[in-house]
# Entry
Amino acid sequence: MPDMVSLPQLLDLSLGTPEAGAVNFNNLHKPLAAHASNKRVESNEDGIKTAMVLIEKLVKDMDQLKSENQELRQNWTRLTWMISTSS
# Structure
């Protein structure tokens, strides 16, 4: 077998040697492993994209909460000032 073969050639070698109908599982392992590895990479890329969307949403929510917290603190300060001056 040559040193460099394409995945389709490797599949042909895996499923057609030494005779039609015989399976060379050592050769078949390589294209199957390459395919599985490629699927993991695609899956990881999708996972990373999903995580980035969630992180962006969390940052936006955190900014909103900071703004609301600041508003509540200002209102609390006003309220305590009003109570202290009315006594």
In short: The chain has two helices and no strands. Residues 25-86 form the longest helix (62 residues).
